[in-house]
Amino acid sequence: MTTMNVLSGGAAQGLVRGVTEAFKAQTGLGIDGEFGAVGEMADKLRAGAPADLVILTQALLARLAEEKLVVPSSITDVGRVETALAVRSRDAKVTVKTEADLREVLRSADAIYVPDTKASTAGQHFAKVLDQLGIAYEVASRLKIFPNGATAMRELAASTATRPIGCTQATEIIATDGIALSGALPPGCELVTMYTAGVTARAAHPKEAAALIALLTGADRKDLGQRAGFTG
């Protein structure tokens, strides 16, 4: 089967998966997607990786358009995603209403699972939050850093630690078996990221890429987006 190539932040993986069958019925194409840290996906596009469509943060799409790697007129917002906390499904959820709550929860965790703190949206933000809370050095040895949020959450699900916790995009938490969404970060530490799609300048299937954007953003997909963890 002919496939369309997608490079995407991990936050959109569940949403893309949810429209795959509808896209195949409409276009006859499958979807070959690579999902990971947004910085890594952008660098793959810059390095010439074959891609028809990219789904990354709004700011990153704007830069790629300036670099003439994405067609500006195709850029469309997909939805917002919160950075949130995760626990194993068998563990009690944590209640984090203030910065002090978050500081205490992270101090008490014996393993903290996060995505790449340099290339991923959630990982970069989490590193800043640790600095803001004044505990970056204290918890550094407990950080379990993985290439992307999906991998970090799978590792959290399999963790044998006593009190593990994770932090990544809510969509990646919801899409992972064995873990549970434990709420957004508290005021002052929160992050809500707009994810945006665009057809690449070198797309082999530009019409189909545009069709996928329409599927991802159509009014009839709003419920799917909410179930996947998008807030609108």
What is the radius of gyration?
Answer: 18 Å
Kindly state the percentage of residues in helix: 40-55%
What is the H/E string? Answer: EHEHEHEHEHHEHEHEEHH
Tell how many strands the DSSP assignment holds.
9
Global outline? elongated
Structural class: alpha/beta
| Main sheet specs | 9 strands, mixed
Distance between the termini: 33 Å
Report the average pLDDT across residues: 93
Uncertain segments of ≥5 residues (pLDDT<50)? none
Number of contiguous helices? 10
Beta percentage is: 25-35%
Walkthrough of the structure:
The chain has 232 residues and is α/β, with parallel strands linked by helices. It has helices at 13-27, 38-46, 58-66, 99-108, 121-133, 136-139, 149-157, 170-174, 206-217, 222-228, and strands at 3-9, 30-36, 53-57, 76-88, 111-115, 143-146, 164-169, 179-184, 192-199. Strands 1, 2, 3, 4, 5, 6, 7, 8 and 9 form a nine-stranded mixed β-sheet that branches. Helix 1 (13-27) crosses helix 9 (206-217). The longest helix is centred in the N-terminal third of the chain and has 15 residues, at 13-27. The mean pLDDT is 93.
